[in-house]
Amino acid sequence: MNKEYALGIDIGGTNSVFGLVDKNGEVVFEDSIATASCEEAINLVDAIYSVLEQKNLLNKIQGIGIGAPNGNFHSGSIEFAPNLSWKGKIPLAKLFSEKFKVPATLTNDANAAALGEKKYGVAKSLSHFITITLGTGLGSGIIIDNQLLYGHDGFAGELGHIRVIPNGRSCGCGRKGCLETYASATGIVRSINELESNNKHDSPLLKLTQPQATDIFNLAKQGDLFAQEIVNFTAKTLGESLADFTCFSSPEAYVLFGGIAQNGEEFTKKVKQYMENAMLIIYQNKVKVLTSELHHKNAAVLGASSLVWK
Question: Do 135 and 217 belong to one domain?
Fold first, then answer.
């Protein structure tokens, strides 16, 4: 059977995951490529094409949906993404379309994750929600009245670049104090060196040459006091920010997706608690904080593929 699948692509700061997806959300093939190994965007296009060509899957693709940092739905371009090595404006949808000879649509990676949650995940029954992606950076996809919010220029929903601490940590966007410098996989690792604590010097975290976010969560579960402080600080910063975001669209829920969110319901509960403590009274106890049900599949790949069916 030809032209039966959508190629969904999730471009991340670390890895780019891609998969062939049918209309029911079944992923029939999936693979990944290290994003940093592709010096230019066209190298990633060629690499994905080569993998699918070797698997004899090219003739099954009806269209391509792409989720990428700073992906602009209107222009089809990645524009000045701080967490990618590719600089400036990259006409990525055009590059994929020309290579694969099928239509290609691009959106922000967090928007793609929100579409995936809406069509296939925990947000199926929700009309108003915000997906928060906690990866290399922090992204957000905003659904209002069952419609994804793009804004007039395609860049609505950059909640990761709301500044939460005046003159705080430097961000790849060129400013200081952005939320993603605190509540992301890279942000939580930065807390090891930048968070002051009486328990800091006895922590095994300082002995790790290249600590990861998972190390922090694992040590916190094992009782390391400094790791527990970092987790609480991260949950507090994120939860208080979600309380402020609620004033914008009054969502039914926030859906947490990505590496940090995969650390279980305990982190989600902490975020919820700090959010409620900071919430404007008219919103208190009305907004859920949910963990994505699509971590084992990849919400962004599914959401990106749904752009083809739409």
Answer: yes
Asked whether the beta carbons of 214 and 185 are under 8 A apart, the reply is no
N-to-C CA span, the chain = 21
Look at residue 173 and give its three-state secondary structure. coil
Which of 166, 169, 147, 168 lies closest to 156 in space, CA to CA? 147
- Range(s) of the domain holding residue 207: 125-291
Are 20 and 105 members of one domain?
yes
Query: Which 3 state secondary structure label does DSSP give 21?
Result: strand
Joined tokens for residue 110: 């967090």
Please write the tens of the pLDDT for every residue from 110-142.
999 999 999 989 999 999 999 999 988 999 999
204, 224 contact by CB (below 8 A): yes
The reported pTM is: 0.90
Number of domains in the chain: 2
Task: Let me know whether 196 and 69 are in one domain.
Answer: no
